[in-house]
Amino acid sequence: EDAPRPAKRLQLVRRGKTVDQNEFTAASLNTDDPETLLPALADLHNAIPLTTEIQNQGVFDEVMNIGQRNKSHKVLAQVIHTSCSLSQCDPCDPKMQDRVIHLALSLVTSTKFIVLVRSLEAIGNLCPTEVGSVQSSITHTLLTHTTHQDNRVRTAAFNSLLLIQDKGVLIPSEAYDSACVALSDDYQSVREAALLIIKVVADTDPERLLPIAASDDHMRLVDHAFSQLCSVVHDISVRVRTQAAALLGTLNAVSEKFLQQTWDKKLISNMRRKRSAHERARAMVSSGEWSTGKRWADDTPKEQVAAESVSIISTGSCGAFVHGLEDEFLEVRNATLDSICALALNNAQFANHSLDFLVDMFNDEIEEVRLKAIQVLQQVAGLVTLRADQLEEILHALRDSSLDIRECLHTFLATTILSTISSVKLCVNALLENLRRYPQDRRSIHRCLRRVGMNHPTLVQALVAELLVIHPYFDGVEPSVQDPEYICKLILVLNAAVKCTTILPLLEQHTLRHYAYLRDTMPQLVPVLKLGEEWQPSRVPVSTNTLQFLKESVSRVGRLERSSTQLRMTVYQTVYSDLIKLADIDPSLSAASHFAASYTECLLLFGKILATRNWLTPSSLSMQQTGALKANVDRLLKTTFRLRHAFTNLSPVEEASIRNLRVRTLALQLVYVVHGSTGSALGLCDNFLEHTEALHRYLTDEGLSADSFLEGVFDELSQLEEPRPGAVARILQPLLLTHNIPPVPPVLHHPVQVHMCSAEIIEPQSDSETIHKLSAGLVVGVPLDAEITHIPDPSTLRVRVCYPDHCTQLVVPPRSHLRQVGEGTYRLLTTVLLSAQVSWSEACHLKNNGRPARDLCWNIG
């Protein structure tokens, strides 16, 4: 062993520290010096809550006494702030809160802003929910200070009104009028607080009628509030504009005419009104005329406009969303898109009106805004009908270099409904061009075409002959089933044939043969069609009892505790092979089968190691026996590590069994290294102690009992003064030899719920013809596209690169390269840097190898 060093003390039970950091007494505040009181009050506020209720009462009384005898405005502000927090400590004392309220109300006449702000915050936090004189006095005080000369006081007054509204206190109607006036305040913080007041009042009483100035008519409060928020979309502050645009989507009870006004945008040239591009496109489509889209002088000013009727500055809700979408800051544009989406989901007419403007956002210069626009359009796809000119504009986005935008657009096209044959043809051609330009989008395009075919069966029927190049009386050349574009067309046609059976007689013989091939290779994309038995894949449904077989296999392992070593080894090997085959037969039991198989493999390896004669003295073994023993130990460590991290959704009993097995493996490794190596085992000993301590805490927290092996480990190690490797190994050696491993844990109650982490490498493919050349000493980037499922912690993901010189690199992919596509499922899109050593003298080939549920690895060789 190495030179003595401070050994790690094993703590089987960690007792929480009970150091009291809140030891404040009333005596520490017995001073009138403001420079001494301010730090003491600040420290007291940071230490809240105090340890005992009695101590809390004593300190509170002393703080209130300071407020009565001290006249410093800074001290008074801190007194109110601290006493308010003290009165809200659990359990709350109404008498203490009343004293703070009266103190704060008595100081609202102060001329110092800090005292006023703290007082208004205190009465807002402590306002009682019962109707009475105190409540009315508080609301009156807050309303009065919304017009205070100091902007900080006005902001505090509005924020306190929001606090009492959250408590269920009905704020008076005058608060809405004050908030509307405050929208023209010079200070940003005041306008932000006023916007929230308007939104809260509109949600509370939306149907209240408000008189219209200079008129005998009335309007609903929610409509008036919507107009007020729309007027703030032109605010000079970016934060205010963003908040106003976001709040527009929360008012769902707005009248239809106010919603339609938000898209009002008039173009005037020389006092004549011009038609916008949206109006010209709509008119051309509705006329039914054939046109290239450009007509002579179609934007010439037509209608004469009176100068008196022109308003240069938009009022009310007119053009609010237009201005929001054209704002120079992306925060405002994103907030506007969110509001449009929220309102369009509740109003189909508004959704159709917003379609042109959403399509225009596809041309935004910011990728985030373009992606948001596609997502909004995707959510309202069921409420709108796309015109041909709009679809053509949307399909231009398939040329975007951003993968997120293209895939999001694929999802939108899969959910939208197209109205004409030409639209379907235009969509298919654009997707095929997308496939030629970006071959890595193959999977997403396949899913999109599958849904397009299912949603438009009759329209696809009219395109079958053109898509598959079917001539009425000439036989064409049989396409290659490896052609990506031909596969896309087949996916479209075959999915449309499910709902439109008249497509089937149009298909040629080679198309039916290709259907049988695709049905076997892509069952998730190609449906089952009602064809003759000649063309159906040879899959005969057979009733299997895989669950019963899994239970019987595990029960065989559990009955071997008293059997001979040779019999146990034979049964372990048989059960392990059966479980691996069962995982391939029944996908629903794949995770549970792999779990039981890995556990059985650990039992088999333990038996082989302990059955090796003189395994505690490796120096007496032959070289072949030593190599086999070391290989079994390494394989056992790897298998238990995989059991510990590759399986999720386990019960506490199953988790405890895996941790127990891991601790046994680390104990075996420690004993093996101490007896058979001359190197230091301090790191292995510390690692074993950490896992043992963590297992003890886990068993204690879950209320589970330890087995005889763990009880012996806990008892012996708790009595050990210095847990050095030699002493720990001497304790573990007899325990390992006398205590058998428990059988497979009961994963059979809910085997389908067990999940196994797996990785599938999509790109680069094993049959890819792409060649990546690199020079020795330099690096080359290889794009990697993989899908990882059931990973509990994405930060633990590593990409392993194996080189032919037996070097291995673990690459940590950036967190931003992981995209969550489902619960516990992530897609990894990254570039792995590969490098060759200068000493290499021969060329090597790159091949990828993805092993599910084991590693995400590349082998070079």
UniProtKB/TrEMBL annotation:
Residues 548-745 form the INTS4 8 helical bundle domain. It is found in: Nucleus. This is Integrator complex subunit 4. GO terms for biological process: snRNA processing. Gene3D superfamilies: Leucine-rich Repeat Variant. It holds the Pfam family INTS4_8HBD. InterPro entries: ARM-like, ARM-type_fold, INTS4_8HBD, INTS4_C. GO terms for cellular component: integrator complex. Keywords: Nucleus. Residues 760-846 form the Integrator complex subunit 4/Protein SIEL C-terminal Ig-like domain. The keyword Nucleus applies. SUPFAM superfamilies: ARM repeat. It comes from Petrolisthes manimaculis. The keyword Signal does not apply. The lineage of its organism: Eukaryota, Metazoa, Ecdysozoa, Arthropoda, Crustacea.
